[in-house]
Amino acid sequence: MTVTDEMYRRVVMAVPEGIWVVDPEGRTIFSNQRMAEILGVAFESMPQQSCFTCVYPEDADSARSNFARALAGDRRPFDFRLQRADGSPVWVSITCMPMNNDDGVPFGLLGMFSEITERKLAVDALRASEERLWEIINVASVGVAQTDLTARLEMVNDRFCAIFGYAREELLGKSLRELSHPDDLLNIVEQTRRLLSGEIPYLCVDKRHIRKDGAIIWSRVHKSCIRDLAGQPTHTIVVLEEITEAVLAQAALKESEERFRAMADSAPVLISLWDTGLNPIFCSSHLLAFAGRTEEQLRTGGFEDLVHPDDLERVDAAVRAAVQRQGAFEIEVRMRRADGEYRSMLTNGTPRFAAGTYAGYVMITVDITEFKRKQEYLMAMQKLESLGVLAAGIAHDFNNLLGGILASAELISAGGEQGAPLDEESLLRIRTAAIRGGEIVRQLMAYGGEESQAFSSVEIPQLVNEMLELLKISISKRAVLNVDFPAGLPSVRANTAQLRQVVLNLIVNASEALEDTQGVIAITAARVSGDDYQPAVLASQDYVSLTVSDSGCGMTEEVQARIFDPFFTSKFAGRGLGLASVQGIIRSHGGAIHVTSAPGRGSRFEVLLPVASEPVSEPAAPAEPGASSEGDPMAATVLIVEDEEALRTAVSKMLRLRGFRVLESGDGADALNLLRRNAPPVDVVLLDLNLPGASGPEVLAELQAIRPGAKVILTSAYSRERVQAGLGGELNWPYIRKPYQLAELTALLLSISRGAAGGQ
């Protein structure tokens, strides 16, 4: 071997590629050490190796095809796997060249093998990663595309194709500009220029595109730029989200809001929207004009300043209670207009919901000031119009009472002339007629707001039985009374006079419903619970139920709907106040009244009154006529100051029969003169507060000056409250209301005069 041959051998043995020379059958002619290392065999065994036996079985056919191609002179490299001695595959890239003899006939093939296993695995991993990434992109819910710098599509996913209605093959190579709406093209081109130049890092714009079928769609376009290592742009990535439905919905919402605002601004009411925190989020133009403020001013707490201070707490409590239950509410409130005038307003609040979730309130406020004024005027006119009927009815009742009194008095007079015994029944009729007349007056005064509002514990059985005794000669003679009061019935908190009025009306009505036929009036009472009544109009507490029912003619539904109207009556000459005042009294007592009736089946009135919290105190029994009390009343002198001569004369005679000394005065000035003379001394003064000359309050004030500590009983036809108000809010003297019974007056005088007998 020459020196040159040795040098070449050493070079071949030192190169990092494997060198393998084989004959046309693949048998080894020569190899270097690196080739043995690639195959994982000893270098000494290389002469026995055949290149075809070292090819990985799955790549054998490809290797033979490429071997023949290279032997024919094709020097293009190719990749395949060899099988190492341990059976593992190794990837190699081979470049071959044929070796020819002097005749140009190939006798072998020289191959240079580069091991590329790591590179091949990396490429395969990268390819797999790219495939997975493409799968992800392809199933994305947004359109994704890659373009070159001229906006031509290089890659699109399925969603991108679906958005535009094209097949993938139709889109690839097409410019995005061809898909853009002409009116939006200049803007997106300018934005893309800024993106490629680096002025902006990315772009996001809402724009229109044109589908294959010509339909215009809206999309939100996100675009970013891919740059090389030198920072130069190479491609753009486009992410496209179709927002056509959202844009149309937003446009529809805007149109709806504009329609709502136009409607709210044109409606002659004040409209506002509130969020869940009771903050206004919309105010109509009429509301802003009413308040004289901007929407921003109202949003920052201006609403509270509009409400009258006296209404603020009530309104706030009502609104918050409605919000807590998320229910509707209606409330009347006084609100200050921009000119400073307080107007009566009616506000209706309705909860609003968005997708089933509570979102706040819609409030509509109506100015009802003029309506209330007209309503008050119409009510006044209605009362005036009804005054004729009312006066006729009352005159009818009083004429009946006076006729009864006159007839009874004449009967007594005729009996006296004939020496007959005193007619007790006629006297009872006169007494009953007077009581009924007083009840009619009280009824009118209660309707006019003048009735006493003093409350005390009242036993219903005792009160009803007292009324029955008085009504026996007035109710229908053909009526059978059935009374059922259980033992241990609790007392109620009530105004005695008003409760008598209730009983009077209900029993008289029941009697009149019998229409002169045989019938039954049933009066019952029981203790009940407010929880047992629906709808829930009563508080959760115990009540006494007083029921008056009859077997009379009954009422139609139309009549039942109107029986509590102030001037409605089904009677020929009725007063038109009975049941209206009954309902007002019951409501003022915190109770309720229920009616059940049908034509031909009678009627049932149930009155419910709250049970009193404190026990009933037994009233002192009135002194019987002619009864004597401790101490001798003969020594007591009573001054009666009363301008009604008939009443003064009758009371004076009765008191003298009871043993009192009585002085009479018909006016205030005469009474004061008598008191100043102090002859004879006066122990008790029965003072009417409505006098000619010096008035009752003036006489009372002068009496206290000239006779400090004098005992006085005040009397009037007005209620205790009105008398108290006329005396400056205080009533420190005993009071007896007209018309009073003489037994009641006698008992009161006896109790007062005991400490004054003998004069002062």
UniProtKB/TrEMBL annotation:
It holds the Pfam family HATPase_c. SMART domains: HATPase_c (SM00387), HisKA (SM00388), PAC (SM00086), PAS (SM00091), REC (SM00448). Keywords: Kinase, Phosphoprotein, Transferase. InterPro entries: CheY-like_superfamily (IPR011006), HATPase_C_sf (IPR036890), HATPase_dom (IPR003594), His_kinase_dom (IPR005467), HisK_dim/P_dom (IPR003661), HisK_dim/P_sf (IPR036097), PAC (IPR001610), PAS (IPR000014). GO terms for molecular function: phosphorelay sensor kinase activity. Residues 393-613 form the Histidine kinase domain. PANTHER family: PAC DOMAIN-CONTAINING PROTEIN, PHYTOCHROME-LIKE PROTEIN CPH1. Its EC number is 2.7.13.3. Residues 76-128, 203-255, 329-380 form the PAC domain. Residues 4-74, 129-199, 256-326 form the PAS domain. It catalyses: ATP + protein L-histidine = ADP + protein N-phospho-L-histidine. Residues 637-753 form the Response regulatory domain. This is histidine kinase. It is an enzyme of class 2 (transferase). The modification 4-aspartylphosphate is found at D688.
